[in-house]
Amino acid sequence: MKKKLVSLALATALLVGVSSVAEGAFFSKKKAKTEVAAVEVDANSPGWKQDKTEETFDWYINFSWYKGKWGRDGATQTITEDTGVTAKYIMPIGDGGQKVTTMIASNTLPDLLTVGWYEGAYNDLIEGGLVYAIDELAEKYDPYFFKVASKEKLGWYTEKDGHVYGYPNASYTEEDLENGKDSIISNQAFMVRKDIYEAIGSPDMTTTEGFLNALVKAKEMFPEVDGQSLIPIVGTEFSNSDSSFGGYLQDFLAVPMEQDGKAYDRRKNPDYIKWLKMFRKANEMGLINPEIFVDKRQQIEDKMVQGRYFAMMYPHIDALQPLTNIYNNNPERMYISVPGPKNSNGDEHTLPGPGISGWTVTMISKNCKNPAKAIRFFTYMMSEEGNRTAFFGKEGYSWEYVDGTPKLLPEVAEMRATQREQYDQLHGGDYMNWMFMDNAMQLRLWPDETVGAMTQVRDFTKGKVQPRFIYERWDPTGQQEEAIISQKTGLKWAATMPKLLTAETDAEFDEILESYFADSEKAGIQKLWDYRTVKMNENKAKLGM
């Protein structure tokens, strides 16, 4: 009874959290600097173990879909207990890039920022001198940082001035990939609704003919789902990119990233064009729902939960929440991975996996009220202690040691597999707070054995991952001529894709595609390929290849 009362009290406490700051949150242009705690700088001892002073950081996450709230779950509560740091998450409403631009212009940058390294904001913050060099902060306030930081990752992110301005998450070194080659997964997935797929005879969907026939049979046998029309195929949202029908599809077709040692336009690949024409034919036959061209991520995921899609070319991690809901509430409608589109040779998919650049980079603004505390916080979050907490949650509440290894409590593992939203709110593990997640460390120290909605989908990608280190960070940025060309032709391609898929005939498709290629040549797209080739060769040299 005493144990139950303690658990009840803890659960109640975990539900009380610090709310994230809304879009209109006010940041003082002149933040009061916090006095640096008197900590003896020691290269052999992490600063966070000595510095337990309380500090609250405003932390901007440049993704409008993120729903984290510091303090409501066991993971973030434990981080606060260990470091003294509390965070107020701030997320944009709408265009994150515009939000960062506004904060820069108004000098209202928060203490910490997490942005994609591929976003313009990353370079704008560095080039504007608006963020601290974390290597300098570490040398001054917490040299132990260099014991937990990866030398390879620091080297990769070292700028021309010799300094590093942010640390990545989800980043893998070559050694990480080699050591985990049998367990590395890709986020790119081709999924089908299992019951429908089996009902139509589990067809081969690796060829254009087989794929189209599968869509036809699915629509004929299952025209509706709970009174709403079945949507035979869907990809990621169409926005300023080209959806899953672009590079995503090219990866399934094993279209190479370079040709004769040079970057080139993968969209000219004959197999890729053949598959796009198949999708055009599918649209002509009424198998592509017009909604897929306008739906945003939330609308797509709402329809996932309803089981309205037969086939999906969609990142499985992004679909975790809706597919867990299906797994829990309508298991007969669960989605599985099967072999998807292949080229005319039938080559195995070459899917992108984790790279050394990672996914996002976290930086310390020069508006930060306590940069010394911030770099010590970085050291903790990057460490084994920090990653263990971010992955498992609170010891005794979410997990316990079994033979010296952290293991989720059985009821927590069950909640994670079947009640994802509740798990996120109460426990916050499995990198719900992902800004410093080190997946390679997790796979090495705590292999995930939990069975859930995404187990088969995730495991299906193993052995199909192709390292792409040399193609990372090869895009031009800022106001470079090549960057302007990239943006202009990219927007043109995003507008062209729906026109290709909705063309009335193959002849019209050819005309639209040739017009795009002609316009992109006039815009100087060859300069973009030349730029990427130079960067590719620089990356090879940087990596000693």
Oligomer: single chain
CATH class of the largest domain: Alpha Beta
Q: Looking across the biggest beta sheet, what order are the strands in?
A: 2-1-3-14-4
Q: List how many beta strands DSSP finds.
A: 17
Radius of gyration: 24 Å
CATH topology of the largest domain: D-Maltodextrin-Binding Protein, domain 2
Percentage of β-strand residues: 5-15%
Largest sheet: 5 strands, mixed
- Gross morphology is globular
What is the count of helical runs?
Answer: 24
CATH superfamily of the largest domain: Periplasmic binding protein-like II
Mean pLDDT: 90
> Which class best fits the helix and strand makeup?
alpha/beta
Give a topology summary.
Elements: H1 2-14, H2 47-50, E1 55-61, H3 74-83, E2 85-90, H4 96-105, E3 112-116, H5 120-127, H6 134-141, H7 145-148, H8 151-156, E4 167-168, H9 174-179, E5 190-193, H10 194-199, H11 208-221, E6 224-225, E7 228-229, E8 231-234, H12 247-252, E9 258-259, E10 262-263, H13 270-284, H14 297-305, E11 309-313, H15 320-329, E12 335-337, E13 351-352, E14 360-364, H16 371-382, H17 384-392, E15 399-402, E16 405-408, H18 410-418, H19 420-426, H20 439-445, H21 455-460, E17 465-466, H22 481-501, H23 506-522, H24 525-542
Helix pairs in contact: 3-17, 6-16, 11-13, 14-15, 16-17, 18-19, 22-23, 22-24
Structure keywords:
545 residues, alpha/beta, D-Maltodextrin-Binding Protein, domain 2, 3 domains, 5-stranded mixed beta sheet, 4-stranded mixed beta sheet, 24 helices, 11% strand, globular, disordered N terminus
